[in-house]
Design a protein that fits this description.
InterPro entries: AA-Vitamin_Transporters, EamA_dom, EmrE-like
Keywords: Cell membrane, Membrane, Plasmid, Transmembrane, Transmembrane helix
Distance between the termini: 7 Å
Number of helices: 12
Protein name: Threonine/homoserine exporter RhtA
Family: Belongs to the drug/metabolite transporter (DMT) superfamily. 10 TMS drug/metabolite exporter (DME) (TC 2.A.7.3) family.
Radius of gyration: 19 Å
Membrane topology: Multi-pass membrane protein
Length: 307
């Protein structure tokens, strides 16, 4: 039986969103010592090791690879996960962390559109389509396709491509055998492949510089332990006991936290066009969530009462 959201969940979700929103800031603060590409590779590898140690015996991470379709689906989602963070690594030096976080979290838009055509139960309502249109209009406003600052525009497009990769990987998880596995299994497959692929990419692009100091060690510890392990474990635990749709709505706090973290920690300026686009994107995401919730309530009036 799923529980209704209470004050403690809002408190936990606030900190989860703050952690997820600030991770790009942690990367950018030490990029002069360790390249973003190598940071993401190291944190993914260390996180995969921790997840394996903690959950392999309980969840059978390696045993599930023998299940038909799991290995191939795991490989596909892992490669898309790696592509997502490859795009993030390319975008971070070119644009602000607020832009990276906002465009990264457009992933639910791409997932919603893809699932509409692939899964009958995921067909979108008119309200949801309205949300999609509003959100994509916001993307156009926020990116501002001009050549005034080609580097920033390129960074925004890299972040948007990362969101697309994340969205497609969510579609594969939803429509494959991975949807039946414990979350730790899918997370391990994604982290492992991402670590390997980004390590290769770092070598290929000569982004292998490492200057160890206290700031680098603290940043990597934060990204590995706090972001990639503790926050995800809290998230997966909440998913077991509370309604996914309600938690998904609260996740919309993450881009807001990311924009605020960049402005406070790095002194990033917030252009009026970006703020306008941000409002449109978040409004569109909210409409998409609300449209899905209303559709399910009409189909099953008691399905979200917690009884």
């Amino acid at each position: 039986m799923r529980k209704s959201l209470d004050a403690s969940v809002f408190f936990i979700m606030f900190f989860i969103c703050a952690i997820w929103g600030s991770q790009q800031v942690a990367i950018k603060m030490v990029e002069q010592y360790v390249s973003p590409m190598l940071q993401l590779s190291l944190r993914s590898g260390l996180s995969a090791l921790i997840v394996f140690i903690l959950f392999n015996r309980r969840d059978g991470i390696t045993l599930h690879l023998k299940t038909p379709g799991v290995a191939f689906s795991g490989l596909c989602t892992g490669l898309l996960f790696a592509l997502e963070f490859f795009m993030v690594a390319l975008g971070i030096p070119k644009t602000s962390t607020g832009h990276i976080t906002l465009f990264l979290y457009t992933a639910p838009l791409f997932t919603a559109v893809g699932l509409h055509f692939l899964v009958r139960d995921e067909r979108m309502t008119r309200l949801q389509w309205s949300g999609i249109i509003v959100a994509f209009a916001g993307i156009a406003v926020a990116v501002q396709f001009s050549f005034a600052d080609r580097s920033a525009t390129a960074g925004d497009l890299f972040a948007l491509a990362a969101g697309l990769s994340w969205g497609i990987s969510s579609i594969i998880i939803r429509t494959s055998q991975l949807s039946t596995l414990p979350p730790a299994c899918t997370l391990f497959y994604q982290l492992t492949i991402t670590s390997l692929m980004l390590a290769l990419a770092a070598c290929f692009t000569h982004e292998t510089r490492v200057i160890l100091n206290a700031a680098v060690l603290l940043s990597l510890a934060y990204q590995t332990i706090i972001v990639s392990v503790i926050s995800y474990l809290c998230w997966f635990t909440l998913l077991r006991y509370y309604h996914v749709s309600s938690l998904g709505t609260l996740i919309l706090l993450t881009p807001v936290m990311g924009i605020a973290a960049g402005a406070v920690s790095l002194g990033e300026t917030l252009q009026s066009s970006f703020l306008t686009g941000s409002v449109l994107i978040l409004s569109g995401l909210m409409l998409t969530r609300l449209g899905r919730e209303n559709h399910r309530l009409r189909e099953s009036p008691t399905s979200y009462t917690g009884k």
